[in-house]
Amino acid sequence: MLTALDRLGLEVKYLDRARAFYEDRLGLDPVDVSETAVTYTVGETSLVLRRPSGVPRGGLHTHFAFTTPADEYDDWLADFADLDPEEYTFGTYRSLYVDDPDDHCVEIGGIDDADGGNADANGTEGANGVDGSGLTGIFEVVLEVEELARAEAFYLALGFDVVDRGDERRRVRLRGPFDLELWEPQLGLADARGGVHLDLELAVADPDVAVEAVDEWVSDPVVVDSDDGVRRLRVRDPDCHLLTFTGR
Q1: Phi–psi pair at 153, nearest 5 degrees
Q2: C-alpha dist (Å) from residue 84 to 78, 98, 104, 244
Q3: 218: closest CA among 241, 234, 202, 235?
Q4: What average pLDDT values come out for the chain (248 residues) when binned by 10 residues?
Q5: Is residue 232 a contact partner of residue 226, using CB atoms and an 8 Å limit?
Q6: Closest Cα to residue 181, out of 215, 223, 139?
Q7: Backbone dihedral region for residue 22 (phi beyond 0: left; psi -120 to 50: alpha; all else: beta)
């Protein structure tokens, strides 16, 4: 049902400070800039940083993960040495974790094989490989949820599959066009937290079918006006994360 993560929106206090991190430290180039927001393209995903000046605000203290080719991973590790990154190994790949100026936990995973993808902590192959250089995509997003079972049911209805469950922590890892972790309130690896009221835009074959799949959890969808003729429907999941289903 879902085909891609089109947009991840984050809230930041000060755009200049956030841009210095994402552009100077991460090497991203802005594709759209306003007084209240800046947008970058990372693989097939738009990463949007917003000041809290309107709706959607963008997620708070969000843990999300970029892909980079495995042979570039050590360069990133060296570049962030001054921030004392935490590092973990998952199956076939390594990841480093640093906090951005707004306390979003930024993970960079050194992942090979453009056809095969990332492995989870148990070595299970994932959906997102690496093609290119630098930061090549966003392969994981973590949401904070109130009730794990309810949130899991919601995202299973959208076509995600369970690939891992926490033994020591209240979490579940789902896989679709990107990896989605659902956490009840807690601190994770590198003291990361699940994002609150995230703004996610999800590409789908048919927005109406996506809304119908989750209609028991959501109120009437909002039609998003656009100039490109693409149908977009917006809902909030049971934990008030804002989801936009975009037909393509």
Answers
A1: -60, -40
A2: 10, 8, 15, 36
A3: 235
A4: 96 98 98 97 97 90 97 96 95 95 98 52 44 90 98 98 93 97 96 96 96 94 88 96 94
A5: yes
A6: 139
A7: alpha
Which of 179, 53, 227, 218 lies closest to 244, judged by CA? 218
**Structural domains in the chain plus CATH codes:** 2-247 (3.10.180.10)
Residue 34 near residue 46 (C-beta atoms within 8 A) = no
Q: Which residues pair with 102 in a beta bridge?
A: none
pTM: 0.91
Q: Rounded to 10 degrees, what is the CA torsion of 66, 67, 68, 70?
A: 130
Alpha helix (H) ranges present in the chain?
15-19, 73-79, 148-157, 207-213
Beta strands in 145-212 (DSSP E): 161-165, 171-175, 179-183, 199-204
Q: Is the peptide bond before 56 cis (omega within 30 degrees of 0)?
A: yes
